[in-house]
Amino acid sequence: MSDNLARLLVTGASGQLGRLVLRNLLATVPPSRVVALVRTAAAGADFASQGVELRIGDYDRPESLEAAMAGIGRVLLISSNDLARRRAQHRAVIAAAQRAGVRFLAYTSVLHADRSPLGLAADHRDTEAALTGSGLDYALLRNGWYTENYFGALAPALAHGAVLGSSGQGRISAAPRADYAAAAAAVLAGGASVAGHVFELAGDSAFTMAEFAAELSRQTGKPVTYADLPKADYKSVLLGAGLPEPVAELVADSSEAARGDTLFDDSRTLSGLIGRPTVPLAESLAVALTVV
Ligand SMILES: NC(=O)c1ccc[n+]([C@@H]2O[C@H](COP(=O)([O-])OP(=O)(O)OC[C@H]3O[C@@H](n4cnc5c(N)ncnc54)[C@H](OP(=O)(O)O)[C@@H]3O)[C@@H](O)[C@H]2O)c1
After folding, report:
1. Which atom of ligand 1 is nearest to the CA of 59?
2. Which of 56, 114, 194, 211 is placed for a possible disulfide with 207 were both Cys, Cβ 3.0 to 4.6 Å?
């Protein structure tokens, strides 16, 4: 079957990124070509009502994955949010795709995964190695930071007049989830021409955490500055705010690693893929502030 007619399966379809990918796909391809991998039918009910076929699968049950990928030509593997298990989970998806006869698999990795010092990059390198050695046609979608990562703490930042982090003067080329989703949908639906490509995906413009605090201050009229903390102190704050230890470690580690511009990229590959500029911080922040 031509890749222009292949059925397209999205994993993590019930998640925040997956839902946006499906929305983008449904704007360009008929629903009959779109398949959503979900753990429960209830999680995909709104897409099923639009004609998307649901396949039930769990990364922790490999036999469910092979059955779910029967007849599928192209897969988008959205990285799992299970930090303890995701290496094995991703390898299970790739192995099941091979067994099911899938031709192409795109994987959402992390920006500059091959050289990134972020602790979380190790999982992505492991998955990239499994995929590039699998014999499948592949694309690596190395996503930079979601702008939304900085919106969870807007209320305390405004209450205390301080944005906290460990990123120093590091520049962060963030883009909203919706922009990464549009790129993933374009690659998944785009035919075989991208096989073997590595996409370093990031926002067109970058900000430091001090610039983030200044923009927050400008838009709200409240004094907000950036307080740069040692990683251990920032992690303590995150634990105190109720984050589980592995998540607090991941956030503090990533924040500290950003000091070295490790989340910066000016290739504009993302805007090139989606055919429009990425949405800048000021615009995303204005929307986020309407619900704080
Ligand atoms: N670039 C960044 O800044 C950034 C930030 C945060 C996360 N991420 C990564 O990007 C991924 C997507 O982001 P997101 O915001 O869409 O995350 P999310 O909303 O947490 O979605 C995660 C998805 O993974 C699915 N999933 C989890 N365990 C599974 C399993 N055992 N079997 C099958 N599906 C499973 C979830 O299904 P259920 O609905 O059934 O739970 C959900 O659909 C995350 O998982 C994480 O790896 C990147």
Report:
1. 32
2. 211
Per the domain annotation, does 291 fall within a domain? Answer: no
Q: Residue 89 — φ and ψ, nearest 5°?
A: -65, -45
Nearest residue (by CA) to ligand 1, atom 21, is 15
Please list the pLDDT of the chain residue by residue as tens digits (292 residues): 567 789 999 999 999 999 999 999 999 999 999 999 999 999 999 999 999 999 999 999 999 999 999 999 999 999 999 999 999 999 999 999 999 999 999 999 999 999 999 999 999 999 999 999 999 999 999 999 999 999 999 999 999 999 999 999 999 999 999 999 999 999 999 865 667 899 999 999 999 999 999 999 999 999 999 999 999 999 999 999 999 999 999 999 999 999 999 999 999 999 999 999 999 999 999 999 999 9
CA of residue 220 to ligand 1 center, whole Å: 31
Q: Domain for residue 210, yes or no?
A: no
User: What is the rounded CA–CA span in Å between residue 158 and residue 290?
Assistant: 13
In short, whether 127's Cβ falls inside 6 Å of ligand 1 is no
Nearest Cα to Cα of residue 12 among 69, 67, 70, 59: 59
- Whether 224 is covered by a domain: the verdict is no
Query: For the chain, what is the domain count?
Result: 1
Cβ of 165 closer than 6 Å to ligand 1, yes or no, is no
Q: Which domain holds residue 129?
A: 8-145+175-203+266-274
Q: How far apart are CA 224 and CA 218, in angstroms?
A: 9
Q: Which CATH number do you get for residue 105? A: 3.40.50.720
Q: What is the CB neighbour count within 10 angstroms for residue 17?
A: 21
User: Kind and range of the H or E element at 109?
Assistant: strand 104-110
